[in-house]
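S.,

Sequence below, as promised.
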Amino acid sequence: MTPIRRKFLTRAALGGSVLGAPALVAAQAKTPFNWKMTSAYPKGAPFYMDGPGSATDLARRIKDMSDGRLNIQVFGAGELVPAFEGFDAVRAGTVEMNHANSYFWTGKTFAAQYFTAVPFGMNFQGMNGWFYDGGGIDLWNEVYEPFGMVAMPCGNTGVQMTGWFKKEIATVADFKGLKMRIPGLAGKVYAKLGVDVKVLPGGEIFPALERGVIDAAEFVGPFQDRRLGLHKAAKYYYTSGWHEPATVSELLINKAAWQKLPKDLQAIVSNAAAACNVISEGWCQKANADAMEDLIKNQKVIARPLPDAVIAALRQETEKVLAEAVAADPLTKKVHTSYMAFKAKYDRWSEVSEEAYHTKIRG
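The prediction came back faster than expected:
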């Protein structure tokens, strides 16, 4: 082969590789990703698995927005892994995503609970302010960094109800020896007051309450609670909602899988999750309003707030539980400090905005 011909062929090969590069990148960009997402809630559960802002709605939005480039198969609790094993499944890479609430992972890291709900903490508006503009999501990912995962909010119930009780709660003493289904920080607070705390998946609450395995139970709110039939097992429905003023759904993602997604697909997931965060809370307002009216008018439920003295005791114990957690773990202290600093600022604004409207204008 002559030197001239060798030079020509070399240039042609280089030219072909350069010209082919955009086509290769384009082909890779169109390669679909097929992921699995588990849930802590059973198949068909409203809000969590079905309906606006649910896990299945989130998966559909991601598929539509990505034009089919990211397909997520959704599994309810028990279909692929048990209800409370989604964290470990994502961590191990068995699945790429899990849809649940971060306070289920208290055994992994106490700080995770701040990203679901804090008793006497912030409401929906305040939580979103902290997440999106106050560094909350960055802290969330810092907490999960040692586990190789990232997370973001993807739903919110708004204010939840205190729960269902077979007997009236008149004083703090009525909590002593009470067997109650209650997760998260609230469970730790109740335990301080003598409650025998149980953590049960949603599908197990009604039979346990009906058979007397538990004496009281908290789940979500009027719509979800009525669907489980909790009003058929207990008639006292306390409405104070002290324990979960806004309960966040968590989209948990394996970090290695996340980093393999192109930037545009990462943006689609983030924006779809943010959309579901708002849409799900909006759905709850209508659904809960209708269900609460039915429970009181037609199901003869006794709905009332907890006595002031009981709420005061719960607040006092909450402060103790949080103080103990902060003292025990520097990362929890960091999250707590950020959360409470934002809450203080938000509370001052809320006093002259939301609270002023509710107390002075709405009537």
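The radius of gyration is 24 Å.

Coffee later?
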